[in-house]
Amino acid sequence: MSKKKKFRPHQQRQAYLFILPSMIILSVFVFIPLGASLVISLLNMNIFMKDISFAGIHNFVKLFSDHRVANATFNSFYFTLFEVPLQVGLALLLTMYVAKNNKYTKLLRSTYYLPFVCSMTAMGIVWSMMLDPNMGLVPYWLSKIGIDSISFLKDPNLAMPTVIAVTAWKGFGYTLTLLTAAVLNISSSLYEAADMDGAGQWKKFIHITIPGIFPTISFCIVTTTISSLQVFDQTYVMTQGGPLNRTETVVQYIYDRGFQTAPYDLGYASAISVYLFVIIAIVTFVLKRFVLNKGEEAND
Amino acid sequence: MRMKKWWSLLIAAVLVGSSLAGCGSKQEEAPADANAPAQSESPAQEPAGTDAPEAGGETGEAVTLNFWNVFTGSDGDILREIVDKYNETNTDNITINMDIMPNDTLQQKLPASIATNTAPDFVLFGVENIAPYVSNDSLEDISDFWDTAGVDKSNFLENVVDLSYVDGKLYGTPMQYNVQYLYWNKDLFQAAGLDPDTPPATMEELADFAVKLTDSSKKQYGLALPTSVTYMQFLWANGGDADDTETNTNLLNSEENLKTLEWLQDLAVNKKVTPENITGPDADTMLQAGQVAMYMSGPWQINGLNEAGIKFGIAPCVAGSAGSFSPAGGCSFVIPKGTDETKKAAAYKFMKYWLTDEVLKEWSQRNGFPVWSKTLMEDPEIQNDEVLSSISKATEIGRSYNLGYSLASQIDNDVMIPLFEKVITGASKPKDALDEASKAMDAVLGSN
After folding, report:
1. Angstrom distance (rounded) from CA B52 to CA B35
2. Which of A72, A186, B3, B254 could join A212 via S-S bond, C-beta 3.0 to 4.6 A?
3. Dist CA B47 CA B174 (whole Å)
4. What stretches pass through the bilayer (chain A) (predicted)?
5. What is the predicted ipTM?
6. Which residue has the higher pLDDT, B405 or A279?
7. Does the distance separating the beta carbons of B111 and A49 come in below 8 Å?
8. Could you give the C-alpha distances from B245 to A78, B167, B307, in angstroms and in order?
9. Is there a contact between B337 and B128 (Cβ–Cβ < 8 Å)?
10. CA distances from A98 to A101, A102, A192, B271 (A)
11. Taking CB atoms and an 8 Å cutoff, what residues of chain A touch B112?
């Protein structure tokens, strides 16, 4: 007993040493910027960092009367509400077919995974070229079968759905991989028993597969939601927030205020970042309460 | 047990060490940036060998200048040739390290680098950027340039030189001057039954021609109207304007502007003469592909059109009831605040080199940019240059728009571009779009 007590502090010290590298990296890229943006959001400060003064909550007051913040918040939620179900749902459906280990399904799974390993920027450029109404491949094919002049990323009503579709296409392979791994972990005796009882594919999927992988599903929902609320690269590359700000998400607007439009108001941009941080914290909390916990219950 | 512990300690130490080393080298890099090029330049200075870095610091002879600019197009290659030639031929032992980046990137990096004293020694960017930088005290006042460098200011057109002055002080030396032209595709004119040598001169003609030149079955459009830019030429043509920079007054809500915007919406939405919702680069590509018959843009189109083999003409922007005007712009060399005297003197030498007729002539001839050096205008080769003589008339109608005004880019991004976008896409009626823009303009002007 006493030996154990003596040993522990040492062990802990070693543990701290091991996490030190990642703590340094996390501090430099996460904790310090987080603290800094909290402080900057209370200042009048632009990118030139001259004449910095205390602004109090002025930036936050301004934020709530700025219709572009409201518009950007709407767009971020619009994106999230459709992208997450699409990505997770698509992955879930395909899991039914590829959650076996043979050559064919392995090939399919790696094919689905391929877009995920490519950079969003590169994929965004490729898709915006393929969908371009004047020189793109997809509108050309559509015109061959009699569907004319769909300008996916240029049409104010179609731009966001298009961005959502491209994002889901790029991301579902990752979700699929996680779900498939979970499905393969389900004991085969359950399926055998169901077969004996004469259950069909669909029934087995609903009553065995889904409950079996529910913790993984809820994990996917939470992580995808968080990353969806931070959506930036795809809109930046494919639409620049346009047309008519219909794809301007919160992060895109933060970037615009801080780095694209003079006077490069870092104080205001930071205030919007803090606002987004709070939104994501609330959403995560709610999801954790209602989705993650349920997942754990289901697992018990 | 002991062995294991030692091993784990060792691994931890290595991990920590390497991560610290990673941070350390990054930190070192930043402040040394100004001097670092001496090392990174070594391939170019191969003959000088190992003593090159020392020469920079101790003898004070060799000067390496870091130079950032935004010339990402084909003109960037010509700029690089000129700079390379200067590096080889100058007798002052000056080496210029050129770094080309998109304007977006430059605008993100430059203010931060000036604030942390890691800025390049001189920069080349659009004159519209000068005022915001000056109002944040981020550029060197170079009013002594003409005397110190011994360059005759009176040899250059006043309106061009003026673009680099803010409140009577010089912050940049002019590098090029440009206005918007009307480009037209002669082959498409002919095919549509129009005279290929007569461009439209008025707004009515422009609309009329644009309709005739539009053939949606062939995906051919009469006039490209990108939604990511402003159309001051149209507002001015009918006697309207956006704002008065002297008095901070909002001039948007006028009958003239409404009339112009209604005309523009009719053209874009009802007559469908423009491809829907395109960006400037989209329009460039379509003009080069022969999908667009007319397009208003700057001199930088000329090289691309020649390379694409398009038969084109260059005309002044069309006239309305108040005449014809074209927004003027240009680029200037500027020196970020905090550049030391030696480097500043070396940058002056390069600026002086640029302002020689020899370099200006090469730049104008190879890029199709207007000539603004009076002695160069007398040059017979320039006078006989087909492109340059065709643009000289189009250049005369240049008018400055919010230049030297620190709110210029905010007005463009928050007021004017959204206004034109709503009108051209038909998202709002001209009256509503104008009211909304006018409110946005008040907000921007009020923040001054």
Report:
1. 12
2. A186
3. 35
4. 15-43, 77-99, 111-130, 158-184, 205-229, 266-287
5. 0.77
6. A279
7. yes
8. 40, 13, 40
9. no
10. 8, 9, 18, 52
11. 47, 49
B413 neighbourhood in chain A, CB within 8 Å: 256, 260-261
Task: Measure the CA dihedral A251/A256/A260/A263, to 10°.
Answer: -130
- Give the separation between CA A154 and CA A160, rounded to whole angstroms: 10
**Residue at B217 is within a domain:** no
What residues in B contact A263, CB-CB < 8 Å? Answer: 132, 136, 406, 410
How many folded domains does chain B comprise? Answer: 1
Rounded to an integer, what distance in angstroms lies between the CA atom of residue A187 and that of residue A208?
Answer: 10
End-to-end CA distance of chain A: 33
| Probe site for chain B from A134, A140, A155, A246 (most B CB atoms < 10 A) | A134
Q: Which CATH number goes with the domain that contains B106?
A: 3.40.190.10
Residue B436 belongs to a domain: no
Instruction: Find the mean pLDDT for residues A89-108.
Output: 89
Mean pLDDT for back-to-back runs of 10 residues, chain B (448 residues): 55 49 38 38 40 41 92 87 95 94 87 90 93 90 95 92 91 93 95 94 96 91 93 95 90 95 96 90 90 92 90 93 92 94 94 95 90 90 83 82 83 93 94 95 84
For residues B274 and B224, give the distance between their C-alpha atoms in angstroms, rounded to a whole number. 5
Contact (CB<8Å) B275/A133: yes
| Nearest alpha carbon to residue B197 among B395, B381, B390, B394 | B390
CB contact burial B218-241 (16+ within 10 A = b; e otherwise): ebbbbbbbbbbbbbbbbbbbbbbb
Measured between beta carbons, the chain A residues lying within 8 angstroms of B8 are: 14, 18
Nearest chain A Cα distance for residue B42, angstroms: 32
Probe site for chain A from B5, B101, B133, B136 (most A CB atoms < 10 A): B136
* pLDDT of A294 above 70: no
Cα distances (angstroms) measured from residue B68 to each of B79, B106, B120? 12, 8, 7
Strand ranges, E, within A45-183: 53-54
Task: Give contacts of A261 with chain B, Cβ < 8 Å.
Answer: 409-410, 413-414
Where does residue B138 rank: exposed (0-12), middle (13-18), buried (19+ CB within 10 A)?
A: buried
**Omega before residue A263 within 30° of 0, cis:** yes
pLDDT, residue B423, reads 96
- CB contacts, 8 Å: A260 with chain B: 104, 107, 413
| 3-class DSSP state of B325 | coil
Task: Map tokens 């922007």 to a residue.
Answer: B317
Best probe of the A interface among B15, B227, B287, by most A CBs < 10 A, is B15
Count CB-CB contacts under 10 A for residue A37: 19
Give CA–CA dist B365/B359, Å, rounded: 10
Report if pTM > 0.90: no
What residues in B contact A132, CB-CB < 8 Å?
Answer: 282
Q: Which of A28, A134, A261 is facing B286, going by the closest CB pair?
A: A134
CA separation for the pair B146, B148 (Å, rounded) = 6
Q: Which two tokens stand for residue B97?
A: 């390290």
Question: Would you say residue B247 lies in a domain?
Answer: no
**Interface size, chain A vs chain B, as Cβ–Cβ contacts under 8 Å:** 108
A63-299, what's its fold? MetI-like fold (1.10.3720)
> According to the model, what pLDDT value does residue A200 have?
85
Could you list the residue range(s) of the whole structural domain that residue B363 is in? 62-178+330-386
Half-sphere exposure of A218 (CA within 13 A, CB side): 19
Instruction: Give the model's confidence band at A70: pLDDT under 50 very low, under 70 low, under 90 confident, else very high.
Output: very high
Interface of A with B in 207-246 (CB under 8 A): 240, 242-245
CB contact under 8 A, A154 and B8: no
A281 to chain B, closest Cα gap in Å: 29
- Report pLDDT for A8: 61
